[in-house]
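The data layer described in this paper is built around a simple, fixed record for each protein. We quote a single record here, exactly as it is kept in our systems:
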Amino acid sequence: MNNFDGLQYNTQREQLRIPEYGRHIMKMIDFAITIKDKQERNIAAKAIVSVMSQVNSEKKDSEDFEQALWDHLHILSNYQLDVESPYPLPKPENFNEKPERVPYPTKDIKYGYYGKAVKLFIKKAVEMEEGDEKDAFVNSIANLMKKSFLIWNRDAVEEEVIVNHIKEISNGKLELKDPSVLKSPEQLMIFNKKKKNNNNNSSNNKQNNKVRKHNIKHKKRY
């Protein structure tokens, strides 16, 4: 007889309702269903929930953690486990129903390369009171816009373009008072690249120094 006779691949087994708990807990629940004495079933159910909490320990800090475990116990048993639960029994229709579709903005953004966030920042800036804080916020938005523009078009961007776009997106309610606050492309985009190159150069220099010392040491032997 082949030693592998009787074995099944996971794809051939019954599909798990909540896969994260695995088949061992499923077997424990199946056994608990067969227990005739209700008091013993209650004890078994509490023990299973305790094991389930260890499997799902990363969610212990959540407010409804224990109730979720009991809900999962009933779901895994296909609502066949008759035990005294400290929480209301979950409804099968709530578990099986599809989640609601998340609404997605369908309106086109005129300057898509700025993204929706910039539009929200500008709206917030329009609502702010005049003063240094508002000016600083507008300056930050302008530099963010310039950086986004350069990612979309790496050639160049005139300061006037950013000034006009701020005014247009805000419906004329916002203005970049001092275009000179706009940083250069190097300051916005290439600084990290330079830093990375400097780190690589430093690493290469250290390696070259090691090779140089090694060569000198061997020359002295001869």
